[in-house]
Amino acid sequence: MTQSSLQDPPSPKPSLWALSPLFVFTGFYLLIALIAQDFYKVPIAVAFLLASAWSIVITKGMSLSRKIDYFSAGTANRNILMMIWIFILAGAFAQSAKAMGSIDATVNLALFILPDNLLMAGIFIAACFISLSVGTSVGTIVALTPVAIGIAEKSGIPLPFMVGIVVGGAFFGDNLSFISDTTIAATRTQGCAMSDKFKANSLIVIPAALLVTLFYIYEGTGMGHVVPVSQVEWIKVLPYLIVLGMAIAGINVFAVLAIGIAATGIIGAATQSCMPLIWINAMGKGIADMGELIIVTLMAGGMLEMIRLNGGITYIIDKLTSRIRGRRGAEGCIAAIVCLCNLCTANNTIAIITVGSITKDISEKFRINPSKSASLLDTFSCLTQALIPYGAQLLMATGLSGISPVGIMRYLYYPFVMGAFAILAILFRFPRKYSAPFRRQ
């Protein structure tokens, strides 16, 4: 049964209980981590299985068969399936690139170009630039995480730290890029020009990015020359250059990854570093390695659909909008409402679209500049997306690096600093130009 053939209740009643699957997931995750005394050993798939089952149990007024139909419709959501196809292609590309030596060659190139003390800052700036160019955090993570893993292995920098640098930088462009889905959704729902939103947004997040860059430069000052620079095999760098070039040119991510996979096979055969059978086996291994990631993504989609169906998102919107006092309170409500909705959808673009109309009403009532409201929507949705262990970005980074999402989260310095600057922008009415009372024409 398809999602379109299922009829939702006319208007889901607001329900705090509908959010309980999130509490079950978090509680189980923390309980096992405390028992094992290690977040790396928490079986995230089992946590999602338990939370998914609970989301079905608490759904009332329909048969078990009907509940499973709704849950399955959530897993078949277009955005969920698109993510899964990207995971499959990304796994195949990452493993085939590794088999033919592309990752090692790219790492050696980065080590050759960047001094040791600028490695961390250089990777962060690269992630910011690529994500700003391509407008997608997932694409940036796919491209740079294997390189970050290689640098961590050769330099002795902790792997979660390096992956955290990439994930953090990836959200810089996701938040600011003109071609990012979140930017498009935020500006369209708030009725402002992209250029105005960019100006308001950049005044909040660019200082945060500069501060984090300085921190990475400081962290690298004591490294000294600890990384031996091997000879750069330029031809093996080509698959990554092709992927990055096409991504920056705005070519569809599916085409980018498919061509990247083909490039690894052609160059591997030409250099005899990865013959066809080895290349095919590498792709198969890469796809298989994404198995748990795909299963978790499907369960998350179903669980979040049940939360929506049972009135969890309606509850969040109703409770927050009833407590607004003044323009600061209105801006704080916009931030809180998109954060909580993002927790329930695990997709920052969908969260913005979901609360966009109510946010616009709040902005008009309290005379908030639409560029400021769009900026807050985008920034706080990206902040939440960066910090949920079941978001596509952390799941992708986890799948590529083999480490716990919680292990990465503690090193997401840029999202934390970005969130702090965004909160300060609300409290201190900054930027001034976009925080003054605004009357729509």
Overall description:
The chain is mostly helical and 441 residues long. It has helices at residues 20-36, 44-57, 64-75, 78-99, 102-113, 119-134, 137-155, 159-176, 181-190, 194-220, 234-248, 253-270, 276-289, 291-309, 312-321, 326-345, 348-365, 370-387, 392-401, 405-409, 413-427, 432-435. It is globular and about 65 Å long. The N and C termini lie far apart (46 Å).
Summarize the structure.
This protein has 441 residues and is mostly helical. It contains 22 helices and no strands.
Write the layout of secondary structure elements.
Elements lengths: L19 H17 L7 H14 L6 H12 L2 H22 L2 H12 L5 H16 L2 H19 L3 H18 L4 H10 L3 H27 L13 H15 L4 H18 L5 H14 L1 H19 L2 H10 L4 H20 L2 H18 L4 H18 L4 H10 L3 H5 L3 H15 L4 H4 L6
Helix pairs in contact: 1-2, 2-14, 3-14, 4-12, 4-13, 4-14, 4-19, 5-7, 5-11, 6-7, 6-8, 6-10, 7-8, 7-19, 8-10, 8-18, 9-17, 9-18, 10-18, 10-21, 11-12, 12-13, 15-16, 16-17, 16-18, 17-18, 18-21
Shape: globular
Estimate the strand proportion. under 5%
Radius of gyration: 22 Å
Q: What is the number of E strands?
A: 0
By DSSP (H or I, 4+ residues per run), the number of helices equals 22
Percent of residues in helices: over 70%
Query: What average pLDDT do the residues reach?
Result: 86
N-to-C order of helices and strands:
HHHHHHHHHHHHHHHHHHHHHH
Characteristics:
441 residues, mainly alpha, 22 helices
